[in-house]
Amino acid sequence: MRGEGRGEVSAGGVRAGPPGSSARRAVHVVSGRRLGDAHPRQEGPADLRLVPPALAAWATAALALDASVAVAVGIALVCLVVAAVLSARAGVLSVRTEVLSVRTEVLSARRRWAGVTFAATLLCVGAAAVSAGLHGADVRRGPVPGLAREYAIVTAEVEIGSDPRLSRPKVRGDRVTSAAVLVPGVVRRVEVRDGTSVATRTPVLMIVDAEESARPEAAPAGAGSPWLGLLPSTRVRVTGRLAPATVGGDRVAGVLRVRDGGPPSVVAEPSAAQRVAGRLRAGLREATDGLPADARALLPGLVVGDTGRITPELDEAFKETDLAHTLAVSGSNLTIILALLLGPPGLAQRVERRGLAPRLGISLRGTALLGGGLTLGFVVVCRPDPSVLRAAACGAVVLLALATGRRRSLLPALATAVLLLVLYDPWLARSYGFLLSVLATGALLTVAPRWSAGLRRRGVPPRLAEALAAAGAAQALCAPVVAVLSARVSLVAVPCNLLVEFAVAPATVLGFAALVTAPVAMPVAKALAWCASWPAGWIAGIARAGAALPGGGVDWPGGWTGALLLALATVAVLLVVRRLLGRPWLCAVCGVLLVLAVVQPPRLTRVLTGWPPPGWRLAMCDVGQGDATVLAAGDGTGVVVDAGPDPALVDRCLRTLGITRVPLVVLTHFHADHVAGLPGVLRGREVGAIETTGFEEPVGQVEFVRREAAARKVPVVRAVARERRRAGPLDWEVLWPPPRQTPEPEGPNDASVALGVRSGGLRMLLLGDLEPPAQRALARSPGAGRWREVDVLKVAHHGSAYQDPDLIRAVAPRVALISCGADNSYGHPAPSTVAALRAGGARVLRTDRDGALAVVGAGGALRVARD
Predict the structure, then answer these.
(1) Is the alpha carbon torsion for 770, 774, 775, 779 positive or negative?
(2) Tell me: the pLDDT tens digits for 167-221?
(3) pLDDT digits over 749-791, tens only?
(4) Strand extents, DSSP E, 589-637
(5) 21-35, 579-593, 714-728: lowest mean pLDDT where?
(6) Which of 269, 181, 180, 189 is nearest to 231 (CA)?
(7) What is the largest CA-CA distance in the chain?
(8) What is the mean pLDDT of residues 509-533?
(9) Is the model's pLDDT at 342 over the cut of 90?
């Protein structure tokens, strides 16, 4: 019988169906009578018909961006012809099967739907090929690519494409890269060799040297650049050197380096919408000016994606805990605002629907229009960048699908969003951010409901089950892609996301309230921002706490091979967890073991790994090409001498050593490979003071140290020769530099702080980066005679060839330690230095080959352990 085995809805009511389907039939009948009388939720198998077209368009766009327009059009024509043939055959098949049996009709209908789906897929492939071909041609057409290959100096009119941003500083040897402003844009007109001006439309990335003169004392380098205030759609006239793109990816035709960091020459003002958005964003920044540092940095990023105040340390903490999505505009931001308007999504079409809209008497249709207006305003205020468009599409489409109460419409909604976004901006097809957004949204729509139902069946409260399922599903699907990018897997991502989940909504709502209030009532906006600072500060605190856990993450193979391995490992873990859920005691044991692996109590870690060895006196951290040494000063206490070039590396070293209190940080001099890691030392530890040399160069690094110290209220003092200090079993003496160094040092190296250290009967000499002139002067200085024939020598300047042989002979160390990076470009340590040390009877160890080193012993007993 036709329709056997299922209930069917027609215009007149419900056809007969199998026993037990009356409840489902009743819901369909009511929903057919009047919208809003009941909850029209449709359960059933997922509707996957739009998934193949969306995936095919995605793959085509990723591949066709490198193809010519002719090839893309050819692909589209072939797809169009094949789709037309398939559609025609499907129509003929439909006519021929009308006279056949019902069963044959059902089979033919399935074939017809398969043919239609395949035809739709071909059409989407053709459309994606054309769109990608045209977008890819923008990068290759016109004179700009050729001028970039010639490294030509050009004058061009550039339209700003998105927010200018400061580049993250990078350590290059003993220096940090100079501040620069990155400005994505489109070249609209360029002057060629003969002086003629050619109109074009070519995307480029401008790199503008930051102007330092306008920078406030406490602001990061480059923060005063006038380029940071430019709004999208502004046109500027610049002169600079074009070069092939080495940053910015294949989305740009070249890099335009502008050496003049002064005020830009504006030739066309931004659009009215962008001016309004700029005023709103500036108002939010002003409203958050008086907040604590973390909330001041995080709130603009959480609300409108303004990450200009996010410090590298805070950014790293969010990455290590997989909370980086809270620093950027995401679909959850829009979902929260629309949910405030609509109420709980599942009630959007019910009489008792909640939210602000029904309380204000707004009809369902008016609510939909208002939601569309909010979505448009969201895109304008947060800038129409690809990430914002992606967030708006995913957030709005999925929320509207949820609002209908039709679970089967969720995947088609996501597939529609993916298809439209890829056709609008094919470059998203190569974006890891886009892939992560789709995976996270797909996990929430497909995997999370099943996991939530399974947890509820095992007695987990509904709210907790939903939160656990959502966080776990998103992490399971996104972790392999994150591993590709960072070669690291976070073990605290799920708990950290759960802990911040309840704070995101109030921070976002209050932040948006401050955003719209700031232009008309700044005191009210400041009050709202102060209220929002509490949940925002909680989010930042969770990120910092999670990142500070010793076992918060594990290194993992990078690339897609590592992603595949992680996917297999995730499946294996899920299978094990599924079996463990029925055994509560075993679950508890596994949970305790996981907590111990993440927290890694120092005593337990020492027993299991042997590191750090009992009774260690000095530890030299493996921080790459730089210096970071720790002197044991009691249980959990250590004096840190230099911080290395990377906060994450020195922080990890201190965590493995169990150091939670630092009475003193000695920065021997201000080169980046000794001070750039200072935030890692200060992270989550009680620090008494920072002691530095009196030779304050380079100026940028001096300001960096003072800024970090001021942010944490740590005093900065100056080291002077003959100064003596003591901390627990440790005492030390400053040997260099003298109060008045004569002659003036030639550079920061010769002004390094040198220390003579005693601990447990061992005598240790730490020379910083002193070079031969200062080494000879140190050997002749008063008190230097007490530091001959030491037990341990920290070799100066990473073991470079510039050493004073007389000092090496006079010191005559039993052990010489060298801190240097593997395969460094400086050739450290120099073979001549290593040979001289060994000729004097010293055992030479180096971090590039031996890893982290720990000196153990007392008196005559001395050994060195390796991590």
Answers:
(1) negative
(2) 777 777 767 777 788 899 999 999 876 677 888 989 999 998 875 444 444 445 5
(3) 999 999 999 998 899 999 999 999 899 888 888 777 778 889 9
(4) 616-620, 629-632
(5) 21-35
(6) 269
(7) 112
(8) 91
(9) no
Q: How far apart are the C-alpha atoms of 48 and 25, rounded to whole Å?
A: 23
Tell me the per-residue pLDDT of 543-596, one tens digit each, with 9 for 90 and over: 988 888 888 888 888 888 888 999 999 999 888 888 887 777 888 888 888 888
Q: How far apart are CA 402 and CA 375, in angstroms?
A: 16
For residue 831, name the pLDDT band (cuts at 50, 70, 90).
very high
For residue 385, give Cα distances in angstroms to 183, 230, 369, 674, 753: 13, 15, 23, 38, 48
- Position 563: which residue type? A
Report yes or no: 481 and 500 within 8 Å, Cβ to Cβ.
Answer: no
What single-letter amino acid sits at 561?
A: T
Of residues 711 and 20, more confidently modeled:
711
Q: Report in angstroms the alpha-carbon separations of 33 from 12, 36, 40, 589.
A: 10, 10, 11, 55
CA distances from 47 to 44, 410, 446 (A): 9, 8, 11
C-alpha closest to that of 568 among 580, 555, 557: 557
Percent of the chain's residues with pLDDT above 90: 30
Least confident of 64-68, 85-89, 438-442, 798-802: 85-89
The SS3 call for residue 723 is coil
Cα radius of gyration (the chain): 32
| Residue 627 near residue 846 (C-beta atoms within 8 A) | no
Cβ–Cβ < 8 Å for 290, 238: no
Q: Worst-scoring range by mean pLDDT, 9-13, 625-629, 646-650?
A: 9-13
pLDDT above 70 covers what percent of the chain? 82
Amino acid symbol at 448 = A
Q: In terms of DSSP H, where are the helices of 141-214?
A: 144-149
| DSSP state for residue 211 in the 8-state scheme | P
Angle between helices 331-342 and 386-403 (to 10 degrees): 40
Main-chain phi, psi angles of 434, to 5 degrees:
-65, -45
**Token pair for 21:** 């389907």
- Distance in angstroms (rounded) separating the CA atoms of residues 490 and 471: 13
Sign of CA dihedral 161, 163, 166, 167: negative
Three-state SS for 628-690 is CEEEECCCCEEEEECCCCCHHHHHHHHHHHCCCEECCEEECCCCHHHHCCHHHHHCCCEECCE
| CB 792 within 8 Å of CB 764 | yes
DSSP structural state of residue 177: P
Contact between residue 299 and residue 526 where contact means Cβ atoms under 8 Å apart: no
Written as six digits, the tokens of 496 are: 């950290």
Tens digits of residue pLDDT in 462-492: 888 888 888 889 889 989 998 888 888 888 9
Sheet order of strands, 730-736 included = 724-727, 730-736, 754-759, 762-766, 792-794, 815-818, 843-846
Residue that is written with structure tokens 């992270």 in the block = 683
User: What single-letter amino acid sits at 355?
Assistant: G
Query: Do 476 and 448 form a contact (C-beta atoms < 8 A)?
Result: no
Q: What are the structure tokens assigned to 530, written together?
A: 């102060």
Q: How far apart are CA 380 and CA 372, in angstroms?
A: 13
Whether residue 445 contacts residue 411, with contact meaning beta carbons closer than 8 Å, is answered with yes
Residue with tokens 């750039």: 676
Average pLDDT estimate for 152-164: 89
* Cβ atoms within 10 Å of 158's Cβ, excluding its own: 27
- CA geometry: angle 749, 754, 756, nearest 5 deg: 165
pLDDT of residue 33: 37
